[in-house]
Amino acid sequence: MSEDRLLAFLPVVVLLTLSPGADTLLVLRNTLRHGAGGGKRTAWGVGAGLLVHGSLSALGVSALVLASAEAFDLLRILGAVYLVWLGLRSLARGLSRTPAPVEVALAGPEAGGARAPGREPLFEGFLTNLLNPKVALFYLAFLPQFVDPEGPVLLQTLALAGIHLVLSVLWLGFLARAIHAGRERWFRPRARRVLDAFSGGALIGLGLQLALERR
Predict the structure, then answer these.
(1) Mean pLDDT, residues 130-139 taken together
(2) Pick from 126, 96, 99, 104: nearest CA to 179
(3) 3-state secondary structure of 94
(4) Contact call for residues 121 and 180 (beta carbons, < 8 A)
(5) Around Cβ 201, how many Cβ atoms within 10 Å?
(6) What is the DSSP secondary structure assignment for residue 215, as one 8-state letter?
(7) What's the rounded Cα separation, in Å, for the pair 65 and 61?
(8) Terminal Cα distance for the chain, rounded
(9) Cα gap 153→27, rounded to integer Å
(10) Cα 2 to chain centroid, rounded
(11) What is the DSSP string of 35-87?
(12) Are 193 and 72 in contact, with CB atoms under 8 Å apart?
């Protein structure tokens, strides 16, 4: 991969990483529920999903899936259903008069006595990306533009996907810490209900948009 191709790739992938979407909403949601540790685990789950898509794209598997209308629609519907399900759970907490208790102490997971988040945030981040056909389509349509056909295509594709993965994990992890820094404000019952309702409604909207989208 030439230096020119890499320099052209970086600003585009940075803008893509900073653009808010389902990943950002999940980090917000899980940081409010589990503290900074939950947000960071969500970020690592997102990174794992990107790694799978990048690997499948490099091996050509994603191209086979997207070439099949039935497989594409199945992946799209599964992704939409999962986003709506996550959104409904958050919306239910937001509309509840008694929000679910925060699962970490206000001092955060770094403080003694705070219960560490489980694997749920990790799996949510992973499945949200794995079941999103837009991610597979992005890797197939976007990454090849920056791959030198005369070089090792597989290694170049994995390297570019790795750059996207690292940037995503760093950015989402930063968001988790930034949200957690305002924990005394956000963990107030009314603020948590509002944010739960907001993130839930947004996730439902993204899920319905994905369900109604056509290739």
Answers:
(1) 83
(2) 104
(3) helix
(4) no
(5) 16
(6) -
(7) 6
(8) 31
(9) 33
(10) 29
(11) -HHHHHHHHHHHHHHHHHHHHHHHHTHHHHHHH-HHHHHHHHHHHHHHHHHHH
(12) no
Written as one string, the DSSP assignment of 145-188 is GGS-TTS-HHHHHHHHHHHHHHHHHHHHHHHHHHHHHTHHHHTS
Q: How far apart are CA 35 and CA 117, in angstroms?
A: 8
Report how far residue 208's alpha carbon sits from residue 194's, in angstroms, rounded to the nearest whole number: 21
Q: Which two tokens stand for residue 64?
A: 């086979």
Give the model's pLDDT for residue 165.
92
Quote the mean pLDDT of the chain: 79
Give the model's confidence band at 154: pLDDT under 50 very low, under 70 low, under 90 confident, else very high. confident
CB distance 121 to 32 below 8 Å: no
106 has a pLDDT exceeding 70: no
93 in Cβ contact with 99 (< 8 Å):
yes
Does the pLDDT at position 195 exceed 70? yes
Stretch 42-46: mean pLDDT:
94
Q: CA-CA distance, 110 to 125, in Å (whole number)?
A: 22
pLDDT score recorded for residue 1: 61
Residue 58 in contact with residue 157, Cβ under 8 Å? yes
